[in-house]
Amino acid sequence: MTGKDADRSTSRNILEGYIGRQGALLIALLDIQYTLGYIPESVVEDASEILNYSQPEIWGVLTFYSDFKLGKKADNFIDVCLDGPCHIDGAENNLKFLEETLIDGSTKGFEVRRSSCPRLCSQAPVVAINSEWHGRMTPNNLKHLISQLKA
Ligand code: FES
Predict the structure, then answer these.
(1) Any idea of the CA torsion for 133, 134, 136, 142, to the nearest 10 degrees?
(2) Strands 132-134 and 127-129, sheet pairing
(3) Cα(117) to centroid of ligand 1, in Å?
(4) Ligand 1 nearest-atom number relative to CA 82
(5) pLDDT for the residue 56
(6) In 3-state terms, what secondary structure has residue 79?
(7) What is the predicted pLDDT for the residue at 77?
């Protein structure tokens, strides 16, 4: 099974866990995003079939909440929180570092995404690497974490 097929299978299993639960769509989508780090495009068709929502309803939820990341562009996701406390404590420096570093051909396989507050403000600025949040991040800390992933 390829990565894409495995992710679809995982998301279908998650959706099936919400069958019969009232108002399940948003929670199921959050569960998929949390588990996979993104929302496979196949979710629209699968959630319609499994949870009996119309496809426009599902698109409505996915596009209303900006934190849903639809589709996968790389094997690794790096999410940078840019809200208030993180912004004040240097999130823009981290984002600039990541964008400048990861456009280099040797670091293909990373997707840098902007995120809203995951409620870890006391550890600002925070960055998640493949859904694992790290606090008090600096460009040097990021460089170290990314080199571990590449190793
Ligand atoms: S503003 Fe970044 S964790 Fe809350």
Answers:
(1) -120
(2) antiparallel
(3) 4
(4) 2
(5) 96
(6) strand
(7) 87
d(CA 65, CA 61): 6
Question: In sequence order, what DSSP letters do the residues of 101-133 get, joined into one string?
Answer: HHTSGGGTTEEEEEE---S-GGG-S-EEETTEE
By the 8 A CB rule, do 11 and 28 touch?
no
What pTM was computed for the model? 0.77
How close is the Cα of 113 to the center of ligand 1, in Å? 14
What is the Cα–Cα distance from 98 to 8, expressed in whole angstroms?
A: 29
Query: Which ligand 1 atom is at minimum distance from the Cα of 120?
Result: 3
Which H or E run contains 134?
A: strand 132-134
Confidence at residue 83, expressed as pLDDT on a 0 to 100 scale: 95
Residues contacting 80, CB < 8 A, separation 6+: 86, 91, 94, 95, 98, 112, 113, 114, 115, 125, 127
Q: In what order do the strands lie in the sheet with 127-129?
A: 110-115, 76-81, 127-129, 132-134
Stretches in the chain below the pLDDT threshold 50: 105
pLDDT at position 107 is 59
